[in-house]
Amino acid sequence: MTHVMYGSPASLFSGKARAYLDWKGVDYREVSPNLQIRNEVIVPAVGRMIIPVIELDNGTILQDTSIIIDHFETAEGGPSVYPRTPRQRFAALLLECFGDEWLVLPAMHYRWNYNEEWILEEFGRNMMPDAPREQQLAAGTMIGQQFRGFVPVLGINEATIPGIEASYEALLADLDAHFAKHPFLFGSRPSIGDYGLIGPLYAHLYRDPASGEIMERLAPRVAEWVERMVKPSEPLSGEFLSDDAVPDTLIPVLKRMMREHVPFLTETARMFGEWHAANPGAEIPRAVGMAPFTTGGVSGEGAARVFSLWMLQRALDYLASLEGDERAACEALLKDMGGEALIDFGMPARLAYEDHTLVVA
Ligand SMILES: N[C@@H](CCC(=O)N[C@@H](CS)C(=O)NCC(=O)O)C(=O)O
User: Domain GST N-terminal, which positions (predicted)?
Assistant: First the structure.
């Protein structure tokens, strides 16, 4: 028996998990979840409908791509996507958080404002491959409504769209310059940071046709990196750069995270602290209100998602584990990227992900 991944070609986080599993050489098959899998496997095990979900060959269910990746890193051994040296590892964890939690803005904007009809049909094709087109469109529209509903909640609207597009186009230019010099973020091996970025940059921003045309036109080297990521020609190969080098070409990308994402995370943390003080022991909600953000010079408000803090905590835990020269090297890197706010971030409560749910540890 092999492992099963319940996932879908159009899903952001399925793309992250799939790219990793394929590079890692994991023996698995991917199954598109139908209603029965949803009701009999995913919802009973996870408590809600979400993909990707992995069912291991021993029946264990894993959810959350970071948990899935960490499971196989330990279970399979062999070359790792986690750099061993401090600056690279810390920067890679930051970029995983940035990709997973911040680049959903451009991903969802371009999908729903440039590819809506296509994606509704695509959802339908995945659900009922043999049905006539009209029926596929009707089924896809039902599923699509839920995801379309996330768009305003994330803070994507007429006022913020110009900023989201300006920021995304500038990010593409920065990444295009980086990939002119390096195949992956930190050398010739993909890192956990590459897997964070591939989620949004594959399904929504490369595979959706109108988005893919934009990426090919503005940043062809980013499109080539996407192809290297999702069709690894040599799994388990490559090296991270020597001497713990973080390429200069990544500094603008990290600066963007510090400038746009970190203030939003800081406000999310403050709001979560208030919520936690007022609701001790209560189940953690997905969002603790709407927090202000600025992207591409334009300001808006988006759902303050507690999960984003758990992703940031992964990077901050690593920083906290370092001492002496190693810690000093990471703090110097933070200063280079304008990330001093992360040195004493002050997470209001420690978070843990237990039984597929966020809890205060
Ligand atoms: N952080 C999770 C996120 C998974 C996720 O958001 N999956 C999306 C599809 S790409 C989903 O199923 N969303 C349903 C929902 O959020 O209600 C992970 O890394 O697996």
Answer: 6-79
153 Cα–ligand 1 center, Å: 15
Give Cα separations from 182 to 95, 116, 252 (angstroms).
16, 34, 15
Start-to-end C-alpha separation, the chain: 35
Question: Rounded to an integer, what distance in angstroms lies between the CA atom of residue 171 and that of residue 201?
Answer: 11
Per-residue pLDDT tens digits for 170-220: 999 999 999 999 999 999 999 999 999 999 999 999 999 999 999 999 999
Q: Is the CB of 174 under 6 A from ligand 1?
A: no
Q: What is the pLDDT of residues 70-97, one digit of tens each?
A: 999 999 999 999 999 999 999 999 999 9
Q: How far is the CA of 206 from the centre of ligand 1 (A)?
A: 19
Cα 282 to middle of ligand 1, angstroms: 22
Fold of 3-76: Glutaredoxin (3.40.30)
Hey, where are the domains in the chain? 3-76, 86-107+160-360
